[in-house]
Amino acid sequence: MPEYTIKLLETHEVAEGTMAFHMERPVGFDFKPGQSADLTMLDPPENDEAGNIRTFSIASAPSESSLMFATRLRDTAFKRSLRTLPASALFKMEGPSGGFNLHKNPTKPGVFLAGGIGITPFMSMIGEAGHVKDPHQLYLFYSNRRPEDAAFLQELAAMPQRNPNFHLIATMAEMEKSKQNWEGERGFINAAMLQRHLPSLSGPIFYVAGPPGMVAAMRDMLTKAGVDEDDIRSEDFPGY
Ligand SMILES: Cc1cc2nc3c(=O)[nH]c(=O)nc-3n(C[C@H](O)[C@H](O)[C@H](O)COP(=O)(O)OP(=O)(O)OC[C@H]3O[C@@H](n4cnc5c(N)ncnc54)[C@H](O)[C@@H]3O)c2cc1C
Prior knowledge:
Blueprint: E1 3-15, E2 18-23, E3 36-41, E4 53-57, E5 67-72, H1 77-84, E6 90-97, E7 110-115, H2 120-131, E8 138-144, H3 153-162, E9 166-172, E10 185-186, H4 191-197, E11 205-210, H5 212-224, E12 232-236
Parallel strand pairs: 7-8, 7-11, 8-9, 9-10, 11-12
Antiparallel strand pairs: 1-2, 1-6, 2-5, 3-4, 3-6
Bound molecules: flavin-adenine dinucleotide (FAD).
């Protein structure tokens, strides 16, 4: 896998406890939307047994000039360091890697099921689809506890104006803990919710990304709803 040394450009909060970090994009670094990279924090302020290397999906689109990644801040040395790193801090990047990419046939819709931080590979796919005016019908079912925890929610809500082929179905599972109003779907993504918003469950290619438990539950739900295993692709985010 190609290796690069890249600089941190800036970081900002994209939801409660979730941070996006922008990195410089090496010359000649090409990737497909949905791919990931291994980032090693060079000279970390602190370290622990979990080490200073993490795999992250590239959340920015290939048409963008810098690279964006996003992560939930947790009590590990890597994540604590990430929170306070100054701009120009150095990382080793190995990549791109992974085959979690949108299928070619535009007559088959793409249905994305994202659990929390699992939104990152889809941000790249959706961003690029809007940029290249991709003909695929894209449906994003985006599951979070509360709107406060949902990274990029406003950006995604505005995306249909830019790409009429894109459809957002956001759902919240713990609105009783939220300070915000919510008119949208509630609860975990399930077959009934899919049937409410999709023309049909047979035909689309389904993509699932998020914590391993969420991915396993979604695969199980889809196969029980009659979706062919061959039409399901998934990306686990270990550690969550
Ligand atoms: C393909 C893929 C894409 C991912 N995309 C994202 C993303 O966009 N955002 C996000 O927050 N998380 C992503 N993850 C998960 C991420 O790598 C971390 O596991 C997660 O962020 C939890 O890290 P932590 O420090 O909070 O927790 P911890 O549980 O302390 O750390 C996770 C554990 O995973 C190990 N680990 C993670 N990556 C590597 C690696 N490349 N090589 C060796 N060990 C590793 C660490 O050493 C550690 O033991 C992705 C994982 C994969 C496999």
